[in-house]
Amino acid sequence: MARLVINDEARLSRINPEIYGHFSEHLGRCIYEGIFVGEDSDIPNKNGMRTDVVGALKELQIPVLRWPGGCFADEYHWKDGIGPKETRKRMVNTHWGGVVEDNSFGTHEFFELCDQLGCKTYINGNVGSGTVQEMSEWVEYMTFDGISPMAELRKKNGHEKAWKIDYFGVGNENWGCGGNMRPSYYADLYRRYQTYVRTYDRNKPISKICGGANVDDYHWTHTVLDVTHDHTPPQFHGFMDGLSLHYYVHPEGWEIKGSATEFDENTWYKTLSKALYMDTLVSRHGAIMDQYDPEKKIGMIVDEWGAWYTCEPGTNPGFLYQQNTVRDALVAGITLNVFNKHSDRVKMANLAQMVNVLQAVLLTEGEKMIKTPTYHVMHMYRHHQGGELLEAKLSGVDNIGPDEWSVPQITESTSINEDGVITVTLNNLSTSDAKEIDIVIPDGVGEVKEANIVKGQMKDYNTFDNPETVTEEAFDGYRLADGKLALTLPACSVTEIRFTI
Ligand code: AHR
Question: Positive or negative CA dihedral for 433, 338, 255, 361?
Fold first, then answer.
């Protein structure tokens, strides 16, 4: 029997809503087809954005969206994507599938999308193949309301008022596709480029994000902070507000990756164990950040995370289209619990990617759209957004799975919102065994407000013919007696239970 003892007096850190952020790149069918179909499409749309997709995303309360990449960001020249659509440059998307990019989705369309979603904006700038001038003019184009060449150009292109950039990324993966740089060289470039990412309106400050490490490249984190640390807090503020980290789960490693839908129990545990590795990464990169920034003013920004499998047979390998099973529901549940637990340092995270690419929450085929198991987990976990992480001690949980990939059977995170409602999210990682768990809180549980679950067999997934094989259902596997909650968590499940004291 497992036991979760919650201390509602111990409020550890605020769970920034941006931890539940998303990422959309000019890659495969993410932007084009998945989100943007153009105003003349037969698929119902508003100003070119699919209404079914926007509607489903709004239900997730998406807090922030990152765009235009990814690797695409360091090849993107923003002026190609403004002005009349007929005159926009057509070019090859060299990075992703060699297809024609007609630039019909550009800066104006991105802000329109965020406006429809009601989310914050995260623009990723081009350091790898772009100039300081190009980056600085983009920021001016988007955010300056006075008299200037770029503000005039924006107005000429039909947008009178400046937009708000909430986050600006200075390059992406500059250790790899963003220029193959060494950390000290990138850090010097960061110092230079960020200087010209100007906040024109003090009421609309831009948070600047420095390009961080790949997986366990602790040397990168150390060096970048070392080269920039004469700007340590309080000077850091407005110089570096975030440092990114990228980590993908590849069950069989980067080269082979592994199928999204065909796997055995060993691979299930291997995948979940690799998902849990996020905890180690966040802790170790966080410890390095603590040396330079003990007050935790710089957020860790995990702006690419998720499972990355071999793409679906018969699809363009450059499009990274993959299915999404109950295993992915667990990858999401485990990872989001890790972020909640580290919300003192992790200030944003962006699932890769939003639609039709990697661990997407939505898949589309022509006019059809389905929600993936990951979607349903993100939907349940939205209740943590803006909550305060509570101290919660889990006991009576054994490790399960093969020795090499053993994982705890249960992971959890617990938060309280401003109305005093406590949300507990629990994952049962076992492929076969249910688990009993008691939830205990000093003053006793008062009333259960709601309980929901995403569950299935480990390889279950949704298709366009059977879109609801895995969905979010009401959960009735709990008993409340004498202020104590007793739950039975089915195998392969992600559960949320919400209650008052
Ligand atoms: O998300 C797909 C790619 O993964 C991104 O373009 C890149 O930043 C990362 O390597």
Answer: positive
Distance CA 282, CA 224 (A): 17
pLDDT digits (tens, 9 = 90+) for 78-95: 999 999 999 999 999 988
**Do residues 119 and 66 lie in contact, with contact meaning Cβ atoms separated by under 8 Å?**
no
- Residue identifier of the C-alpha nearest atom 6 of ligand 1: 70
**Sequence-ordered list of residues with C-beta below 8 angstroms from that of 101, at least 6 positions apart, any chain:** 26, 90, 91, 92, 93
Among 18, 25, 101, 304, the one annotated catalytic = 304
Strands 410-416 and 407-408 come out as unpaired
Kindly give the number of the ligand 1 atom that is closest to the alpha carbon of 96.
Answer: 6
CA angle 389, 329, 285 (to 5 degrees): 50
pTM of the model: 0.97
Query: Which neighbouring-strand residues pair with 268?
Result: none
CA distances, 333 to each of 178, 340, 436 (Å): 30, 11, 18
User: From ligand 1's centre to the CA of 71, what distance in Å?
Assistant: 6
d(CA 136, CA 327): 43
- The single residue of 173, 388, 412, 496 carrying the catalytic annotation is 173
Residues in CB range of 462: below 8 A, 6 or more apart? 324, 363, 370, 371, 372, 373, 468, 469, 470, 471
Q: What is the DSSP letter of 79?
A: G
Query: Which phi and psi angles does 499 have, rounded to 5°?
Result: -150, 165
The string of pLDDT tens digits covering residues 443-497 is 999 999 999 999 999 999 999 999 999 999 999 999 999 999 999 999 999 999 9
- 352 beta partners: 23
Question: Ligand 1, residues 29, 72, 173: which to mutate, most atoms within 8 A of Cβ?
Answer: 173
Q: Which atom of ligand 1 is nearest to the CA of 23?
A: 1
Which protein residue has the closest C-alpha to ligand 1 atom 9?
A: 70
Give the list of residues 6+ apart from residue 53 with CB closer than 8 angstroms, or none.
34, 35, 355, 362, 364, 369
- The three-state DSSP-derived secondary structure of 376-398 is HHHHHHHHHCCCEEEEEEEECCC
Atom of ligand 1 nearest to the CA of 95: 6
